[in-house]
Amino acid sequence: xxxxxxxxVTGPMEMYEYFRGLSGTSGAGARVGRFExxxxxxxxxxxxxLVEVGGVGLTGLLVATAAALxxxxxxxxxRSWRGSVPLVTVVVALVAVTAVGSVWWTTPGQVIQVALVxxxxxxxxxxxxxxxxxxxELLDSYLESTARLPxxxxxxxxxxxxxxxxxxxxxxxxxxVASAGRLAAPLLAGTGxxxxxxxxxxxxALFDTDGTPLGGYAKRRPVPFGEYVPLxxxxxxxxxxxxxxxxxxxxxxxxxxxxxxxxxxxALLGTVVSWEVTFSRLVRDVAQDADGLxxxxxxxxxxxxxxxxxxxxAAQLRAAEQxxxxxxxxxxxxxxxxxxxxxxxxxxxxLQADQAIADMPLRAGLTPFGRTGDAPVGLIxxxxxxxxxxxxxxxxxxxxxGTGRHIETAAASIPQDPARDxxxxx
Length: 426
Fold this sequence. Notes:
By secondary structure, this protein is of the alpha/beta class. It contains 14 helices and 13 strands.
């Protein structure tokens, strides 16, 4: 009964998390990747040892631990062997995962110097659609902030939608160089291009110093009512939805890394855009052939709310999951350089023009989660759920088929009174 109760709690919860991530209806809403962890020692422990199982796996470990404690306390059978099975199982799992997380699965590679540049936001607290000249003012702010860099890095990174959109990436690069001139180093920045009538691509695009596109990552997971309107013909007329989201983002398909030229060598960077960093599966896709990770975001419309801190915390977990460094470039902050351990070594201020130059020590290879993803977790969750369903079915079947037999057996097992039997008429 105790073991069944533990499976009833853990199995369904994990299957829910597993399929929710696959469906794309949510990011890491219930996962640790979005939690605000107030205990710094717990946060460090999770990043250093337990995140190798991924966001869903880490959630499963926490759910299993809570379920084991709850079942043991609720049943009041701490000292029985059956009551201890769930707790012992969870402890063994935690020890095993900790051991796995204590190993460096990736190997050191080249070190590149990266400049994270952020801008002042025109029209603070308002949407870009309500801010005339937003794109030009934002670009000017980026250029001014970049000009203040104390040295020339190997790569300059700007935030999401930093460059004015155009028909193609070639057009974006040409327009940028024509208005701003050459940069001292390759630039990785957010922009948009047309994907047909009423549709667009959102890019993290890499440009050479002369504006030539060297590659790009098109965002694969659009934000509903932020980058597209579901059932636009029905919902597009509600309030300002149609005006604030006038066209729909076309999801990209390619998760290949961007090749950054550095002193005759190539640095491979896997890139995601904005809230995609909260999806461990999406980051795992781009990390397969990459030696470092980058996410471009804006979050400027959230002002001083917790969104910037949450996204940064998610990026720390993704870096530790893959054991690869991650650069976070936000339009108005916070931008940061995160080591493969999840440690932040450089960070900018929030809601002001700022820069941070930091070394990015690249690492090659894959962690266990990088190799298998959530498949082992899904298998375990499916097994627990199937076990719980079978046990419920067996108990239901026994009750419906054997009610009479149980009553007869119970009546026959009542102790008889010998005196009464002797005085009974024969």
